[in-house]
Design brief:
This protein is α/β, with parallel strands linked by helices and 349 residues long. The chain has 2 domains: 204 residues, 3-Layer(aba) Sandwich (Rossmann fold); 61 residues, Winged helix-like DNA-binding domain superfamily/Winged helix DNA-binding domain (Arc Repressor Mutant, subunit A). The protein is 46% helix and 14% strand. An 8-stranded mixed sheet has the order 1-2-4-3-5-6-7-8, with helices on both faces. Helix 4 links the parallel strand 5 and strand 6. It starts with a strand and ends in a 14-residue tail after the last helix.
């Protein structure tokens, strides 16, 4: 699946980048805190999530001002500014769309659906909230904001641990670097402050679109009580709780999350791809997730290196992947984090 990039210009002249993937009826996806259209497409776990969501549809994402491929701005982040972004992207479409909001994008999507009911076919809210002030105590909020502002490197590490506690060390390290590449420390702090300030309680009863609220029960960034608060106040809504602690939609069991969302949107729901692998191929996939090379896989399974290489190639073909990193991300999403591989045991000759 290819990603096509474009840009729109807001009324104040700010340039906002957007991307489309797939073809079919449109799904507008309002992302969370920090974004980068290009780097997210290169991040195997995140791209796998978007590709699965876009199958048979057209997925439209965008970078908010000051993030990723969009231009910097001197304007202070606000809900009104967020809605200007969404309005400019929506204007590129000539039909109603499904609207998906994740994390900070969820309250933005609520406000849009309430104000523009005729544009939204169905609404999906993942990892969202009603009142940002209820995400953490005032002391915790100030501590996190201060850390991001003063020590962006450490701040990105700490927040990644909160956002993706179920992910392995390599995933978290890559995601922390990704966050730092998305924006400056000042922009990151300003957008995080907006997350804490957002309050869409007055908009909830105005939402008319059928709504799915989906949340992981152990989400450490957005308490599950916020999902219940959304569900209690939005008519025609259904609440689906999934197991897991990760706030990032593409961390943890993103396969089940995609299946849940696609089922609600009326899109075909793929079977879990594990059904297409043999028992030996699943063993190889697990060892790849542990960081093993083909030689190490061969040593552990008692096969020659060429056979191990063949298993890897067949796994790539069956799952439709292009890299070992995608296999590792897929295995982690299916069965959780695999422990690091121990040194192979030398067998007597």
């Amino acid at each position: 699946m290819r990603q096509r990039l474009g840009q729109v210009t807001l009324a104040d002249g700010t340039t906002v980048a957007y991307a489309s993937a797939g073809s079919g009826r449109p799904i507008v996806y309002v992302m969370g805190w920090l974004t980068h259209l290009q780097l997210s497409w290169e991040f195997a776990a995140e791209r796998s999530f978007y590709e699965a969501l876009a199958e048979g549809a057209r997925l439209v994402r965008y970078d908010r001002a000051g993030c990723g491929l969009s231009a910097a701005t001197a304007r202070t982040p606000s809900l009104e500014f967020e809605l200007e972004h969404l309005a400019a992207v929506a204007a590129t479409l000539d039909e109603p769309f499904d609207l998906v909001g994740t994390s900070m994008g969820a309250p933005v999507a609520v406000a849009w659906a309430a104000a523009h009911p005729g544009t939204v076919r169905r609404l999906v809210l993942y990892g969202g909230w009603v009142r940002g002030a209820e995400l953490a105590s005032p002391a915790v909020r100030e501590s996190v904001l201060g850390l991001v502002e003063a020590h962006w490197g450490l701040g990105s590490d700490v927040l990644t641990d909160i956002f993706a506690p179920d992910a392995d060390r390599a995933f978290r390290a890559e995601h922390a670097r990704y966050q730092r590449a998305c924006s400056s420390a000042a922009t990151a702090r300003a957008l995080l402050a907006l997350s804490y300030e957002l309050d869409v309680s007055a908009h909830l009863t105005q939402v008319r679109a059928p709504t799915l609220i989906v949340h992981r029960t152990g989400d450490r960034a957005a308490p599950v009580a916020q999902a219940r608060a959304l569900s209690d106040s939005i008519e025609h809504s259904q609440l689906t709780l999934l197991p897991g602690r990760s706030h990032l939609p593409y961390a943890g069991d993103h396969v089940e999350l995609v299946r849940t969302v696609r089922r609600f949107l009326g899109l075909p729901v793929p079977r879990r791809r594990a059904e297409g692998l043999t028992a030996r191929q699943r063993e190889v996939a697990e060892l790849i997730s542990r960081g093993c090379t083909n030689r190490e896989i061969a040593q552990r399974l008692g096969i020659d290196e060429r056979s191990a290489e063949g298993h890897v190639e067949r796994i790539l073909q069956r799952l439709g992947f292009r890299s070992r990193a995608q296999i590792a991300a897929w295995h982690t999403a299916q069965w959780g984090v695999s422990p690091p591989a121990s040194p192979p045991v030398e067998r007597p000759r």
